[in-house]
C-alpha cells in the first residue's frame, strides 16, 4: 500500500475466485490496487479453520487516472468482470473511504476491527505531525480516542489521536 492519490480510487468487480489473478495482472499493468482482507472462520470436516478472505467479496479497489485512455484496459484484464461504472464513466469511490480502510489495515492488508486496538498493541501513525512513527497504545476511550505512548527524543510522551489515524503493525 503506497501513497494515496486524490479521487483516483475505483471499484472493479471480479470474476469468481480471481482475486489474486486480477490483482497480479493489474499491478503488472502499472495500476495500484487495494484489497482489504479479514479473518473468516469456517467449519470444515468437524474442524474450525481460519482463512483470510476479502472484506468486500467479489470487489477490488484500483487507483487509476480516467483522463488517460489506458484505464479501459482494466475491463479486459484477466480475472476482472468489469470496472463499476454508471453509464460509460467509471464511478469514483470517495478517497476518504479508501484512506480510512487503509488506516484500519495492517501492512498485509488485513482489516483490524476497532476492538482490536487494545493497550499494548504497537501501531503506526498514518496522519498528523507524527506520520510513520511507531507507538504503543496506552488506552482506548469510548469516543474512539486512542492514547498512545510515543518515543520522542528518548522520552515517552503520551498523545491522543483518532482511531482512524493509526493502524496496527
Provide a descriptive summary of the structure in words:
- The structure is a single chain.
- This protein is mainly β.
- The chain has two domains: 9-103, NusG, N-terminal domain (Alpha-Beta Plaits, 2-Layer Sandwich); 114-168, SH3 type barrels (Roll).
- The chain contains two helices and 13 strands, in the order βαβββββββαβββββ.
- The protein has a five-stranded antiparallel sheet, with no helix packed on it. A four-stranded antiparallel sheet has the order 2-5-1-6. The chain has a two-stranded antiparallel ribbon with strand order 3-4.
- The longest helix is centred in the first third of the chain and has 10 residues, at 19-28.
- It is globular.
- It starts with 8 loop residues before the first strand and ends with a strand.
- 20% of the residues are buried.
Order of helices and strands: EHEEEEEEEHEEEEE
- Give the tally of structural domains: 2
Give the tally of β-strands. Answer: 13
Largest sheet: 5 strands, antiparallel
- The average pLDDT score comes to 84
Straight-line distance between termini:
13 Å
Amino acid at each position: 500500500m503506497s501513497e494515496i492519490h486524490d479521487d483516483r480510487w475505483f471499484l472493479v468487480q471480479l470474476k469468481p475466485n480471481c482475486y489474486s489473478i486480477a490483482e497480479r495482472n493489474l499491478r503488472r499493468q502499472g495500476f495500484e490496487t487495494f484489497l482489504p482482507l479479514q479473518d473468516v472462520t469456517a467449519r470444515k470436516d468437524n474442524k474450525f479453520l481460519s482463512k483470510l478472505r476479502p472484506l468486500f467479496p467479489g470487489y477490488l479497489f484500483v487507483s487509476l487516472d480516467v483522463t488517460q485512455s489506458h484505464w479501459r484496459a482494466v475491463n479486459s484484464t484477466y480475472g476482472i468482470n468489469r470496472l463499476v461504472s454508471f453509464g460509460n464513466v467509471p464511478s469514483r469511490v470517495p478517497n476518504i473511504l479508501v484512506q480510512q480502510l487503509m488506516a484500519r489495515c495492517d501492512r498485509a492488508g488485513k482489516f483490524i476491527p476497532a476492538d482490536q486496538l487494545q493497550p499494548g498493541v504497537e501501531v503506526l501513525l498514518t496522519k498528523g505531525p507524527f506520520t510513520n512513527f511507531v507507538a504503543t497504545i496506552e488506552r482506548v476511550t469510548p469516543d474512539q480516542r486512542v492514547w498512545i505512548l510515543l518515543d520522542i527524543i528518548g522520552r515517552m510522551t503520551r498523545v491522543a489521536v483518532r482511531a482512524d489515524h493509526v493502524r496496527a503493525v
